Amino acid sequence: MTVFIALFRAIGGANQLPVQPLREALSDAGFGSVATYIQTGNVVLKSDLDAQALVAKVGAVVQQRFGRPQKIIARDARQWSEIIAANPFPDAVIDPKVLHVFVLEAEPAPEAVEVLESRQVDRERVAVVGSAAYLHTPDGAGISKLVKSVERLLKVPATARNWNTMLKLQEMAERAAAE
Q1: Which domains does the chain have, with CATH numbers?
Q2: Rg of the chain's alpha carbons, rounded to an integer?
Q3: Mind listing the pLDDT tens digit for each residue in 121-146?
Q4: How far apart are CA 87 and CA 125, in angstroms?
Q5: What is the pTM of this model?
Q6: Cα gap 160→101, rounded to integer Å
């Protein structure tokens, strides 16, 4: 079985999924080693499905159990490790709350990447590597000019996680792989 990290888009605040029922629903659906991390749509699980089929099945479980559609982006544990290793801003990990990774549904067009990179202002830095966009906001994401426009400018669905969450999910995936 392959270990996957499934990221739910637009979860948090008033739009949360209860994690215990979510874990139970995914386990009941046949996924193995189901674990969640905080209530913002982070699930680590094992499956024999490929990523596309996994996203469809997890989405169907959420729709059936919780009565709402859910957009999900998934990466297997190897891809997740590659995203972490490809971080173009290694100096930014000293403050992991201000380094964000946007996991993209697909690789964006080169022209879209150029547009995004041209919008960097002040001390912010952005880089796209494959199907991940890295955003360093040393003055905080709350005042970032780019944080709300990455997905729109790249024209690819995305969901962002800070560096702490990226590392925690990698740790959870490694634990699931060992089970």
Answers
A1: 2-76 (3.30.70.1280), 80-167 (3.30.70)
A2: 16
A3: 889 999 999 999 999 999 999 899 89
A4: 12
A5: 0.94
A6: 5
